[in-house]
C-alpha cells in the first residue's frame, strides 16, 4: 500500500519562496500540518492565498490546515 508522505520541510521551503514571506515554520501534529509564517510589514498575502499556492504548486497533502501570520517588525534606522 502506498501512503502519501507529508514532509513539513517541503511545505516550509515552499512558503519561504513566496513574496513577502520572511520566515516560516511548519510542523505535523495529530495528522494536520500547521504553519507560523512571518511576513513583511506591508505584505499582501493572507493565509488563504498561501494555502492555495501550496495546493497549486506542491499538492493538497502539503497544505497547512492552520496558517498563522506574524508581521515582522520594521527595522529602525
Outline the structure in words.
The chain has 77 residues and is of the alpha+beta class. Helices cover 27% and strands 30% of the residues. It is built from two helices and three strands; from the N terminus they run αββαβ. It is elongated and about 45 Å long.
Task: Round the Cα radius of gyration to an integer and report it.
Answer: 13 Å
Calculate the terminal CA-CA distance, rounded to whole Å: 57 Å
CATH topology: GMP Synthetase, Chain A, domain 3
Series of secondary-structure elements, N-terminal to C-terminal: HEEHE
Summed up, the domain count is 1
Helix-residue proportion: 25-40%
Basic shape: elongated
Oligomer: single chain
Q: CATH architecture, please? A: 2-Layer Sandwich
Weakly predicted, low-confidence segments? none
The first-level CATH class is given as Alpha Beta
Number of helices: 2
- The chain-level mean pLDDT equals 91
Fraction of residues in β-strands: 25-35%
- Biggest sheet architecture: 3 strands, mixed
Number of strands: 3
Q: What structural class is derived from the secondary structure elements?
A: alpha+beta
CATH superfamily: ANL, C-terminal domain
How is the largest sheet built, in terms of strand order?
A: 1-2-3
Amino acid at each position: 500500500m502506498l501512503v502519501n508522505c507529508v514532509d513539513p520541510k517541503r511545505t516550509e521551503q515552499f512558503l519561504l519562496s513566496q513574496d513577502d514571506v520572511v520566515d516560516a515554520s511548519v510542523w505535523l501534529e495529530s495528522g494536520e500540518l500547521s504553519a507560523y509564517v512571518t511576513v513583511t510589514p506591508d505584505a499582501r498575502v493572507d493565509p488563504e492565498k498561501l494555502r492555495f499556492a501550496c495546493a497549486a504548486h506542491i499538492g493538497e497533502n502539503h497544505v497547512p490546515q492552520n496558517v498563522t501570520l506574524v508581521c515582522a517588525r520594521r527595522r529602525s534606522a
